[in-house]
Specification:
This protein has helices at about 95-105, 120-125; strands spanning about 10-20, 25-35, 35-40, 50-55, 60-75, 85-95. It has 2 helices and 6 strands; from the N terminus they run E-E-E-E-E-E-H-H.
Length: about 130
């Protein structure tokens, strides 16, 4: 079970994401998202309170220049279904047009429009 970082419903997805923390870029997979934040599975999560810029590869276009802060991380814990390796991020800045696109794509009821997803295993292999 992926940790819940806020009370707003999250859409379950499998979207590729690139994270740039200023120390180089890393790839991961978003497994749940809403317009406030996301949970990102990745091999090397950032530390708590670290910031990064995300490029979210949603189904039909990249949502770019999303500023985010790490609010939950599993750097050293087990990588299993209960506590998957990754991090929860809170969006701290998103361009207005991109924010509207994300809100439309991920509706407030926690559902998501029927869209293609990335293969989680394949993306995680590419991320290391």
């Amino acid at each position: 079970m992926v940790p819940e970082t806020n009370s707003t419903s999250r859409a379950q997805v499998k979207w590729s994401v690139t994270m740039d923390s200023g120390e180089g870029a890393a790839d991961g997979v978003i497994v749940n998202i809403n317009d406030n934040g996301a949970f990102i599975r990745c091999r090397k999560p950032l530390r708590l309170s670290e910031t990064c810029i995300l490029t979210i590869k949603s189904p039909d276009h990249a949502i770019e220049h999303v500023a985010a802060e790490v609010v939950w991380t599993n750097i050293h814990g087990p990588d299993d279904d209960l506590t998957p390796r990754g991090m929860g991020v809170r969006f701290t800045g998103i361009p207005e047009e991109e924010g509207r696109y994300l809100r439309k794509l991920v509706r407030g009821d926690g559902s998501v429009k029927k869209v293609p997803e990335v293969d989680l295993d394949e993306s995680m292999q590419m991320a290391h």
